[in-house]
Design a protein that fits this description.
Largest sheet: 5 strands, mixed
Oligomer: single chain
Number of strands: 5
CATH class: Alpha Beta
């Protein structure tokens, strides 16, 4: 029992220390820092958008709010596909908004389209369970 308790304490301390370095706003990323960014944190969600995209504007406040609410657990990034066409081609992004979800630097899931807030939050919660 003491061994289990000590392990729980260590894990909680590690989580608290890691949480300090997590941004609580979406980070604007580009082709120059993309790979480093997705490898830097255990769970990363990249919002692929364009300035002219109306559905992207619907998702934007959900991503901003989620960056605060999931701080310490998930890091959110924003990637303008018009300005970063190489990344868009690399990940075969044909529709926006598209969320690219990375775990330990590997793409594990895509969410395409402007899903309702509750659906997006459900996707995010599944990542941290």
């Amino acid at each position: 029992m003491d061994k289990e308790l000590e392990e729980i304490r260590r894990r909680k301390l590690r989580e608290l220390l890691e949480r300090r370095n997590y941004p609580d706003v979406p980070v604007h990323i580009n082709e120059g820092n993309f790979d480093e960014f997705v490898r830097e944190y255990p769970i990363v969600i990249i919002d692929c958008y364009a300035d002219w995209c109306a559905p992207c504007k619907i998702v934007e406040p959900i991503i901003e709010e989620s960056a605060k609410n999931f701080s310490g657990k998930i890091v959110f990034g924003k990637l303008n596909v018009d300005e970063n066409r190489g990344i868009a081609m690399r990940f075969n992004i044909m529709s926006i908004p598209t969320l690219l979800i990375f775990k330990d630097g590997r793409l594990i899931k895509r969410v395409i389209g402007a899903l309702p807030k509750d659906k997006l939050i459900s996707v995010f919660n599944e990542l941290i369970i």
